[in-house]
From TrEMBL:
SUPFAM superfamilies: Periplasmic binding protein-like II (SSF53850). This is Uncharacterized protein. It comes from the Eukaryota. The lineage of its organism: Eukaryota, Sar, Stramenopiles, Oomycota, Peronosporomycetes. Keywords: Signal. InterPro entries: Bact_solute-bd_prot1.
């Protein structure tokens, strides 16, 4: 139709160069701009306009607009007080014709009949609005005998901003009542600041959070896809919307309840009795003409025709049409709607008013407008005394601890993933990795950084010794005051749950020099046995059902696995152990002999209190010798992997993955990252967790050092508070957000799919001392239906409940995450909970967990001597009595000196 009208009126032939769906329109324009293969005219957004001007692809319309634009078009564009012209003017030239959208604002729409029924008046303040919402919720204003009304209907679009005029069901007026203007750029002290970051916005959010907690906002806020349904079905009696509420949704609401008396008010007012309305962006699209097109005036004339005759011919099939709405038309329509609602006029009174054509609800999607002078929408300014302000984008370099299989989605990396993007979104901080490494390689990178003094802005160090070295060389920031000012209450409570021990470990000379990871008690080392193999062979372990078995049980099971090869590989292998043999960290006890040692009451590598009060090194005790005797016997009988001492960690994991071995020593969480590969290869694989008990039926375990890893900040880095904020974000906000799927959807998907925690900026854990069993309790109760998901404390536990339920429905599921979470939580942590409840643990508290001066020179050699001596004894290269030679050499070559230093230090601490 419009092609014919244009031809008849203007003698212009219109040819369509291309047409695409609305969803693909923006992409098509971007491709046209990039290739400079442009139609003679088209509509673009602000970003595209900026690019085309810079590339010299479009005509200067200054003279053409002056000579060809109709008076009506000029009047509309000029009605914006220069805002519309400013957006298309570059170096004094008008490079496009701007659209103009009518000014509007969110007003309070309220059921006057409900107010009358309850004897209430329209609210003037937020307090009064809250009181009315409470009355609507509690006093059954619709008289249906149910308490099912909603105080204030609301949607996920909490506020409208400069680029988006009044939303439907937004809460902008409540923000305005607090003098808050989220989404707007404001001037403060001569500088632009982003309204969303100001304290006034925070105050408004606190009030809205309180109203939500009281049940006065829609309880499905953020979930309900169509909030208008609460108005249409008569459930809600208040909502905020522009004047167009008279077109939608109220006509539908009146169909259901013709007696509903809806009134509109410019409320609530602020403390000074004022109602704030901010000017919206009048322009969201721009008509451009290709550089070199011979008749740019034709495009202007076509839009003159649209403006004159759209009421006659409609808006369908318009070509390169820009939207123009006079400001006085909006005011007229707003007045008309209110008069109709008040009953002073009827719709018939406004027919045939050709001067004011019916406005259509225009594009409601978020525009990508960039406005001068602030063409960087991420910009804001920093006030170091006010954490609500942000700064210009900052870069933070990091040393990152990686893992071999982080389970990242395709395309994501340690440097660019959902977690690092969350940091960018939250703090405008871009993470750049100075180095990435795993295990010993990471330790070497840290050592090189310390030796050279070229530290990343933030990194993890893995010992108090490294922390001291950094302090001694004045290489890191003092975090004392930063921690006090920026750490959230929850983070402080987590550290306090260790009775001060965690922060004490990071404190040197009374100053907090690092942010400690926490290490809660996660003992014992477990024996993970292929349950599907036990079933096939008819082997029954743990007859008394207490979760603890004897060394003899492990021996017999291993021999059966070797003899009958249930993995059917033809190459069964005994129990593999790493050549480092021992650890003082139960979380890192995979493939170690810590569990075997516990049966003899041995604690190799631990510093212990002797019976006479002296310091004893656990690797030199008679109990450790007994442990080595067991291991040597096992090696001789083939119960231990014959290649013990030569296999790498990954080699050992491969033995389980390939089905060659079916007994693994490790922590409760080894199914999450180690044994999960077994499930990938064999969908029927199942493990059961046991632990080893001594001859008295006790499980000997040691308390964990509450913190052995520390996040440090390079001396001189401008934003040390960012380290605290990152910890707040990941170990408080993300961990405790009850609706993380809405607030942090990308991170929620990572948690749900089991992406490894090492992909977070800091590869540490910050958990309360009781969090492991607290979370387990939530998971068990959630699975049983004793509590709802809204009562589960952490997002991780919610995801674990879903995963475990998936596994319970189908134990042969291909869902690796479901398999892993069931095994680690229900088997692993479930065993810890059972042993705790039954009092099976016999706890040893280490006497010391730090380093001493002489260790810097001797400890590497002493550790090497220990490992080599133990391997020789186990493999039979030396007899068991060689242990005495090892002890003697250990003492002579520095061990006695270390003991003296520890005794001196522990006496000082007492």
């Amino acid at each position: 139709m419009w092609k014919t009208v244009i031809k008849q009126n203007l003698n212009i032939d219109v040819e369509v160069m291309w047409q695409v769906s609305k969803e693909n329109f923006g992409q098509k324009i971007d491709l046209a701009i990039a290739s400079n293969d442009l139609p003679d005219a088209m509509i673009v957004n602000q970003v595209q306009l900026n690019e085309m001007v810079k590339a010299g692809e479009i005509e200067d319309l200054t003279k053409v607009y002056a000579s060809s634009a109709s008076p009506e078009m000029k009047k509309i564009i000029d009605s914006t007080n220069g805002l519309a012209r400013e957006q298309v003017t570059f170096e004094g030239k008008m490079m496009a014709v701007p659209s103009v959208t009518a000014e509007d604002f969110s007003m309070l729409w309220i059921r006057q009949d409900w107010l009358d029924r309850l004897g209430l008046k329209p609210p003037k303040t937020v307090d009064e609005l809250e009181a009315i919402a409470k009355a609507f919720v509690e006093q059954d204003p619709d008289e249906n005998g149910k308490r099912d009304t909603i105080g204030l209907a609301s949607s996920t679009g909490l506020f409208h901003d400069f680029n988006n005029s009044a939303f439907a069901f937004d809460l902008t007026p409540i923000f305005s009542a607090y003098g808050a203007f989220p989404g707007y750029w404001l001037e403060k002290d001569g500088k632009p600041v982003y309204g969303s970051l100001l304290p006034e916005t925070r105050n408004a959010l606190v009030r809205l959070r309180d109203m939500y907690a009281k049940g006065l906002l829609d309880p499905d806020l953020g979930i309900r896809k169509e909030p208008e349904e609460t108005v249409i079905n008569g459930q809600a009696g208040m909502f905020f919307q522009g004047f167009f509420a008279g077109y939608w949704p109220l006509p539908s609401a009146w169909l259901n309840d013709p007696k509903a008396n809806w009134q509109a008010y410019a409320l609530p007012l602020d403390a000074n009795g004022a109602y704030h309305v901010k000017v919206d962006n009048p322009s969201s699209s721009f008509l451009v003409v290709r550089k070199g097109y011979a008749h740019p005036e034709a495009i202007i004339k076509i839009n003159n025709l649209y403006l004159r005759d759209e009421f006659k011919y409609g808006t369908s099939f318009m070509l390169s049409r820009n939207f123009f709405a006079p400001a006085d038309e909006a005011r007229y329509e707003s007045k008309a709607v209110q008069e109709i609602l008040a009953g002073t006029k009827t719709p018939a009174d406004f027919k045939d008013k050709s001067e004011y054509k019916l406005l259509e609800n225009t594009v409601s999607t978020i525009k990508q407008t960039k406005l001068k002078p602030y063409d960087q929408l991420g910009i804001s300014y920093w006030d170091q005394h006010n954490e609500n302000f942000m700064r210009d984008e900052v870069t933070v370099t990091m040393g990152r601890v990686t893992t071999a299989n982080p389970k990242l989605p395709a395309g994501d990396t340690y440097e660019n993933n959902a977690y690092t993007r969350l940091v960018k979104e939250s703090f405008n901080a871009q993470i750049k990795d100075q180095f990435e490494a795993n295990g010993e390689d990471y330790s070497r990178q840290v050592s090189l950084a310390i030796a050279s003094g070229e530290l990343p802005d933030m990194m993890r160090v893995d010992s108090k010794d490294e922390l001291k070295e950094l302090v001694d060389n004045d290489l890191i920031e003092d975090m004392t005051e930063v921690y006090k000012q920026y750490a959230t209450d929850n983070i402080k409570q987590i550290y306090d749950s260790y009775d001060g021990r965690a922060l004490d470990n990071a404190t040197i000379d009374g100053r907090l020099m690092g942010l400690p990871a926490t290490s809660l008690d996660s003992a014992p080392t477990m024996v993970w046995v292929r349950q599907d193999w036990l079933d096939v062979l008819g082997i029954k372990l743990d007859a008394d059902g207490d979760g603890a078995i004897k060394l003899e049980d492990v021996e017999k099971t291993a021999e059966e696995f070797l003899k009958k090869d249930p993995g059917q590989t033809g190459k069964p292998v005994g129990i593999p152990f790493v050549n480092t043999l021992n650890t003082t960290d139960y979380n890192g006890s995979a493939y170690t002999m810590l569990g075997v040692a516990s049966t003899k009451g041995a604690f190799p590598q631990y510093w212990m209190n002797g019976e006479d009060g002296s310091i004893v090194y656990g690797s030199t005790t008679a109990e450790t010798k007994q442990m080595l005797g067991v291991m040597a016997d096992w090696f001789k009988r083939g119960i231990i992997d014959p290649q013990f001492g030569t296999r790498t960690f990954d080699d050992i994991t491969a033995l389980y993955t390939n089905g060659q071995s079916g007994i693994a020593f490790g922590p409760w969480h080894i199914p999450d990252w180690g044994l999960s590969s077994v499930k990938q290869m064999d969908k029927h694989a199942k493990f059961t967790a046991y632990t080893l008990e001594d001859e008295d039926g006790k499980v000997n375990v040691a308390h964990a050092n509450p913190s052995g890893q520390f996040i440090v900040v390079r001396k001189g880095y401008e934003h040390p508070e960012l380290a605290i904020k990152i910890i707040n974000l990941f170990y408080d906000k993300l961990a405790n957000d009850k609706d993380v799927a809405t607030s942090m959807p990308e991170a929620a998907k990572y948690l749900e799919s089991g992406v490894d925690g090492s992909t977070r900026p800091f590869n540490i854990e910050v958990n309360s001392a009781t969090s492991l069993l607290d979370d387990y309790s939530d998971v068990v109760r959630g699975i049983k239906g004793e509590i709802g998901l809204d009562q589960v404390r952490t997002t991780e536990s919610k995801n674990n409940i879903g995963s475990i339920q998936t596994y319970l429905k189908d134990q042969d599921t291909d869902d690796i995450t479901a398999w892993s979470k069931y095994h680690s939580r229900m088997n692993g942590v479930g065993l810890i909970d059972k042993l705790t409840q039954e009092g099976k643990f016999n706890w040893m508290t280490p006497a010391f967990s730090g380093t001493t001066p002489s260790m810097k020179q001797t400890w590497a050699n002493l550790t090497k001597m220990e490992q080599e001596s133990f391997i020789k004894i186990i493999t039979g290269a030396e007899p068991l009595d060689y242990f005495e030679t090892f002890v003697s050499n250990w003492k002579k070559q520095g061990g006695d000196q270390v003991i003296q230093e520890i005794e001196a230090e522990t006496k000082t601490q007492k």
